[in-house]
Structure formats: structure tokens, C-alpha cells
Amino acid sequence: MISSPEAAKFVLVTKSHLFKPTFPASKERMLGKQAIFFSQGQYHAKLRKLVLRAFVPEAIKSFVSNIESIAKDSLQSLEGRLITTFQEMKTYTFNVALLSIFGEDEVKYREDLKRCYYILEKGYNSMPINIPGTLFNKSMKARKELAQILAKIISTRRETKQEYNDLLGSFMGDKEGLTDEQIADNIIGVIFAARDTTASVLTWIIKCLGENPSVLQAVTDEQEAIMKGKEKCGEEQTLSWADTKQMPITSRVIQETLRVASILSFTFREAVADVEYEGYLIPKGWKVLPLFRNIHHSPEIFPDPEKFDPSRFEVVPKPNTFMPFGNGTHSCPGNELAKLEIMVLLHHLTTKYRWSMVGTNSGIQYGPFALPQNGLPIRLIRKS
Ligand code: HEM
Fold first, then answer.
1. Distance (Å) from CA 53 to ligand 1 centroid
2. How far apart are CA 101 and CA 168, in angstroms?
3. Which of 117, 165, 106, 173 is closest to 141 using CA atoms?
4. CATH match of 36-265+332-382 with 1.10.540.10
5. What is any one GO biological process for this UniProt entry (predicted)?
6. How many angstroms is it from 332 CA to the middle of ligand 1?
7. Which residues, at least 6 apart from 276, have a Cβ–Cβ distance to it below 8 Å?
8. Is residue 211 a contact partner of residue 376, using CB atoms and an 8 Å limit?
9. Is the full-model pTM beyond 0.70?
10. Mutate-to-test residue for ligand 1 from 325, 336, 341, 369, highest number of ligand atoms within 8 A of CB
11. Could you tell me which residues are beta bridge partners of residue 231?
């Protein structure tokens, strides 16, 4: 286990070719062996180029208004109800993930994809025993059905010969071509990478804002100012990409929540050869775990680390000390989308709603991401 910024940089960046990513066997089979997480070298570089093409700011800009509709509908459906925040945020982030993958086609396939994916994910951390009745077996069947739905979508798109600026479009447009199986593995992989991570962070933000009224007020003021600015100019009451770049306080709240919660506490690598680091030998085949949470909670790097204090991000953190999206060759290509969807939801949440937390909320559970106890039950009320 490594917990210094220098050692994490060594494993994830400088000598990344000596450390391959590894996952539990069941997860590898369920996501698909050809998914980006498990790959290295040329195939990884090719996938990364295709994934990044769909998630760079230039590409996701066009989705702002669709993401906004999804956020508004989600919040409206929760009005006045006692909800489990994490569950509801998962629905929101699932719908946004599908939008980024299938563009406006998303609505057509949402229910079928949801039904299969929800069965599949139950088996992610199961024992990989493939006999009828096991969780693993049910998940593998759901995976097969999911791949069939994807094959149908791909063949419909091939017939129409239209150009699409979403992730599936990027995968299908590659000249060297990905096979249908490779596309399926990576689409399932992106849903996996995009959904629970972003939903956990949103859940933590809602908790942190609920516990820090002055910070909530500052975020609300910032978001209301954006709304009022539009009213004054007679502009449409919808968010634009430019608006999301005018939210410094909200951005710092997101950064500080990513630090405090460190939902991906660490990542797994495996040494592919004997490696020496500062006089220590890491034998070939040994697992190496860069501990993001320890770095983010080090008092030398972030003084008073347990305190939720977004103002600490008024100063840019030193290199390799803040890695909520990882570092190096496998770092998160979806980070811009994650931040965008969080901001859009926070805009509507803080300007139109208040919420109160229900029950005791001091515990943490891991599923496997760190989460407030019981997924943070809250009651959501529309402001009058
Ligand atoms: C706040 C939410 C998110 C967090 C905290 C997060 C965090 C991370 C981290 C730490 C890694 C690196 C893992 C490693 O090095 O082993 C990663 C990889 C990845 N993430 Fe994210 N992620 C988030 C949202 C997303 C979204 C929204 C997408 C897609 C739209 C996404 C797609 C991916 C993919 C495809 C990889 C693998 C990249 C590769 O292996 O080259 N993530 N993420």
C-alpha cells in the first residue's frame, strides 16, 4: 500500500507500464475482458482516444440542455417524498450515462437497458460460480441480454448511416473498427464507471451542504445569481455550458467533497515485473494499492483534513496530491461529464428545493464506494 504522492505518481504515471490494473474475477467477466480498465498498450491507447473524443468539453457541451431536462424531471419526481438519496441519484446518473452513450436515442432504450443492467450489477462482486440459481449466473444472463440489445442498436445505426456525436458514435466511427463485442464490453464498462461513482459524490455533497448551512447559502446565492442574471437579460431560463463555468463556489464544494469523501479510496495495480522503489522491492505479481484517501487526508498536505472547508481549494493543490479522478494513463476520462452533471443538478436543487436529513447520519458504509449510512434518507421540499 502506498500513501505518498511521489509513490502514487511512480506507480500510476512514471512507471505505469510496470503496473497493470487488476479487478476481482467476477467483475472482469461481467464488465467484459475487453473493457478499457483491464487493457494496456496499443489497445488501451486506441480505446482511450475513442472514449475521450466523446467526453471532451467540446463534445459534452451539446448535452447540457438534455442533462438539465433529466435533472429537472428527477427532482420533480421526488418532491415532497422521503427518499434514499443514493438510490435516486443512481437513477439520475444512469440516465445521464445513457444520454452520453446513445445521445437522443437514449429515451427509446432506457427501460430495457435499465432492467438488464440492474440485474447485472447485483453480480459485480459475487463469487464467479456460473451454475443456475447463483447471483453470478443471473448476472451473466442479464449481460447476454444487454449485449443483444446493444447489437440491435448498433445494427439500426449501421442501416441509417447517420453520424452521431455520442460515445457509441465514437466507437462505431473508428476507421480501424471495434468489434461488436469490444463495443459492448466498453459500453457496459462506461455505465459501470459513470453511475455509482457520480451518484455517491452527489449523495456526499447533499450531506455536506445539509450539515454546513453557511456553505449551502453561499452555493444557493451563486446559483440564484445565475438565474437572476438571465431574468434581467430576458434570456431563456436554461443553463448553458458557459454558465457552468461561472460557478467557482459550487466547484470548490465539489472538489472538497471529492477530497473528504474520497469515494474511490484506492485503486488496484499489479507489478508485471520485479520493481525497485526507493530501496524496496515490489516482487512481480504483487498487488500495489495507491491509497488516494490517505493522501487526501494527510494533515501535511491538507491541514485539518477532517474539516469540510471548500475555501482550501482557493489555492490550487500541489501536483499529485489531489487525485479524485486518478492519475496517469488510466485516469478518469469522464471527469468533465461528472462535474457537469453534478453542477446542473445542484443548480436546480439549491434554487428550487430545501431538504432535511432523516435519522442518524454519522455512519459510513462501503458498497464498495464510501457512502453515508443507509444511502442518506432525506425529505425533499419545494421552496415556496
Ligand atoms: C465523480 C465521479 C467519478 C469519479 C470519482 C471517478 C473516478 C475515477 C478514477 C479514480 C479512475 C481511475 C481508476 C484507476 O486508475 O484504476 C477512473 C477511471 C475511469 N472512469 Fe471515472 N470517475 C467518475 C465518473 C466517471 C464518469 C461520469 C465516466 C464516464 C462517463 C467515467 C469513466 C471512467 C472510465 C472509462 C475509466 C477508465 C479509464 C481507463 O482505464 O483508461 N468516470 N474514474
1. 15
2. 6
3. 117
4. no
5. sterol metabolic process
6. 4
7. 282
8. no
9. yes
10. 325
11. none
